[in-house]
Amino acid sequence: MKKKDLEWIGCKRCGLEKKMANMAQGKKRAQASFFDGVLFMLTAVFSVSLIFITLDNYGVAQDKLLRTAYLANYMQSTSKALYYLDVSTLWDVKSYCKDADTNPGIADNPGATVGYYCNEGGPGEKYDLDCKNLSQYSGRVTVADLLKKDADTTDGTAGQPGGLLDDKFGTSAQMGRTALRCAMKEIMKPFTFSGYRYISEIADATGEQGIGDFPKYMEGQKYASDYMFTKAFREDIDEKARNELDCSKIDSNQLLVIRSPFKILELNDEGDNKGKFTSRNYVLRTCIWPSDEGRE
Amino acid sequence: MFQEVTMEKRQQKRKILGFIGPLGDDIPAIFPIVAGILIFITALAFIETQKADRDRYLAVRSSTLKMSYILTEKGHMGDLNFDSKCKDQLLPFGAGNNLDFAVVLKKQCGPLHYSDEDNLKLVLDGEEMVTDRICSTIEKLQEMQPTSLDEAIPLDIPSKNSVILTYPVAVDCSLGKRGLGMIVVAGWEPKKKSAE
User: Which residues of A are less than 8 Å from B29 in CB distance?
Assistant: First the structure.
């Protein structure tokens, strides 16, 4: 065999080997590319997940805490302001019916879940908030002054409970309840319009449930609240639950209850303690919670 | 002689398999790896930026809240009390906590009007001579004079990292009466000097 022939055979074998080697190399490269692609995808997914997981929770608890602190401070400021606020300046506070022109949707609106009852009637009507009567108090009579007078429990008849917050001091008209309602309606506006409910009331500081010694206290709804004028309160809650309502037991994980000391000194005018003061340890209690009405 | 032959054979074999070098042979694989690392580093940088931004917002919120505690010490805020608090407590507090602020004492003396825009206006009630008051670290705001509601221009509060808190308070009204008012506390992060 000639040398030329041998070279040809060798080259033929060489080409075959090259072809086989190239095929093996191609397979390996495909595998490597696939692996690189997967690695790239994993890195990208991990990076994006890291962004969401880290930023989703970061600072949320602190922000919530600061917002709650603001709400608590607002409520405390409310209680403090009632000690200085002259009732005569509240005569112009309007009912939601009168607000309806400027705030459509707040008052009687069948479609609105937070709609308020609208009634221009006097006492006994659905909406009893006649702030105009407060103009009769001239000078420096504060909301707290009237409220302390109205916080008598005897209602003019010795031993008869139920006189607390009935707009009377004994038998004379002292509109503490009206003053509290008008003041709270204005002060709580930003929260009312943001879907919060509140109840502000005088309670016994030593009573276990806050209502303490005041039987049938809730029956006359003797507290200040916009909640009681809502459809949700009037129609959706049954009579018993409504009468036994204790706002500090509202089923909401965002309920905030502020109790401010509201001590009343009462001068005894009969018996052995005549001429001496009796201390009544009351508190001005305000509950606030976000409404879940209309939410599924 | 034997070694030369072996080396030659090895080089030949490598040439046959297309081997260029440990890095050079895998150049295409480097691109996704580098891109992945870049994405990861960018993600970390983005997270740090966002965290720093939130930290700054929380610091502003916390400082503004602390300042509001000074203002809501009592349920009543008189003009003299407001001015003395501004000079003796609020301005040093703002300087010490790296906070720019504007505090407005709104005297509504009746029903409250909660409007974000109106809350930041200084209003003069011409008939009753009841004027709103302001305390601010920004001189041009501090020098603003109350005007009628129609003419009043809202205070210019930066929208980023700013907090506005309102509180109810009893204020001095006409005829020596105390009516409803609001303390509006706006706090924000000072602009960097280089950005000005």
Answer: 32-33, 36
Strand segments, DSSP code E, in chain B are 76-77, 100-107, 124-125, 130-131, 133-136, 162-172, 178-188
Residue A198 CB partners (closer than 8 Å, separation 6+): A184, A188, A191, A192, A225, A226, A227, A286, A287, A288, A289
Tell me if A47 and B75 make a contact (CB, 8 A cut-off).
no
In tens digits, chain A (296 residues) has pLDDT values of 555 555 555 555 566 677 777 776 667 667 777 878 888 899 999 999 999 999 998 999 999 999 999 999 999 999 999 999 999 888 888 765 555 455 544 444 444 434 455 544 444 445 556 788 888 888 789 999 888 888 776 554 544 444 567 777 777 788 888 888 889 988 988 888 788 888 888 877 776 554 444 444 444 556 777 777 666 676 677 777 766 677 777 778 888 988 888 888 877 777 777 778 878 788 888 889 988 765 44
d(CA A193, CA A187): 11
Kindly determine whether residue B35 and residue A40, on different chains, have CB atoms separated by under 8 Å. yes
Q: How far is B194 from chain A (nearest CA, A)?
A: 28
CA distance B191 to B196: 7
Helices (H), chain A: 3-57, 60-81, 96-99, 143-150, 176-187, 189-192, 231, 239-243
- Rounded to two decimals, the ipTM of the complex is 0.82
Cα angle A68, A74, A75 (rounded to 5 degrees) comes to: 95
Q: What is the CA radius of gyration of chain A?
A: 36
> Which structure tokens are listed for A166?
């009935």
